[in-house]
Amino acid sequence: MPRSFRTIGLIGKYGDPGVAGTIARLRDHLRDRHLEVLLDADTADTIPGHGIGTADRNGLGRRCDLVIVVGGDGTLLNAARTLVEHEVPLLGVNLGRLGFLVDISPPEMEERLDEILAGQYFEEERSLVHARVLRAGELIFESDALNDVVLHKWGVARMMEFDTWINGRFVHRHRSDGMIVATPTGSTAYALSSGGPLLHPSLNAIEVVPICPHTLSHRPLVVQGDSRIEITVVEGGPGEGQLTCDGQIHHRLETDDRVRIEACPHRLHLLHPCSYDYFHILRAKLHWAEQP
Which pTM value belongs to this model? Predict the structure, then answer.
């Protein structure tokens, strides 16, 4: 059964006043349809005179039936992490470059939005992972990630050494520039550039991809999405390692830190126009040859 949309939240690219025009178009269009509109408080700080009621991310999650994200994939990644526990659906308007996640272009924005408000949309669920860093058995950091969790060096062009376990079973020790643990959504991001496979977003899977491994036999590995992955920093030097979630959240790593990565209990709900085609997105964004 189609969702009912009464209150719509708007999130713009962080710190970018260039989103003001698109936000204003959305505001006016939604109000013409007698819908309540709320603007993300951080976005409001960069758009003076927006004329919209504001709310923080928790407020948007509690009050909104739909949140429209205006920007690029990075903006949607940020919104997904902060709103996923509320399970409010997200819709992306693409002002960026790649746009694997934000797939509505500004020229067609109002037309596609009317279709979605009328219940003509495709809804999909995307999995996230939750990362925890344990130091001497104590939890010192945790974060969700929609794309990937990456262990890598901090500002030094040297390799690190890792031990990897999956579901309590030892997999390998290896030396590399880092390790990527990616969701199917993240398989088109850093994991792809590091030689990992593309995973369809509907798959219940996680991929583990080494970054420039010293031994070429260490290849990407795909496991069940409910697997528990643990990676220990065997050698990295004090403060020379770093954990990064979605390329946006960072935490320093020390030798003997253990990173535990598991499926997030909540799933992201993404809305797309009915014309959405994942393989068309791949062809367009990765410049695959089109059939004539």
Answer: 0.94
pLDDT in tens, 252-277: 999 999 999 999 999 999 999 999 99
Q: Which domains does the chain have, with CATH numbers?
A: 7-120+274-286 (3.40.50.10330), 128-265 (2.60.200.30)
Instruction: Please give the share of the chain, as a percent, with pLDDT higher than 70.
Output: 96
**In this model, does residue 227 exceed pLDDT 70?**
yes
Catalytic site residues? 73
Calpha distance 104→124 (Å, rounded): 15
Arithmetic mean of pLDDT over the chain: 94
Specify the pLDDT at position 290: 66
DSSP string, the chain: ------EEEEEE-TT-GGGHHHHHHHHHHHHHTT-EEEEEHHHHTTSTT---EEE-HHHHHHH-SEEEEEE-HHHHHHHHHHHGGGT--EEEEE-SSS-SS--B-GGGHHHHHHHHHTT-EEEEEEEEEEEEEEETTEEEEEEEESSEEEEEESS----EEEEEEETTEEEEEEEESEEEEE-TGGGGTHHHHTTPPP--TTS-EEEEEEES-SSTT---EEEETT--EEEEEEE--TT-EEEEETTTEEEEE-TT-EEEEEEEEEEEEEEEETT--HHHHHHHHHTPPPP-
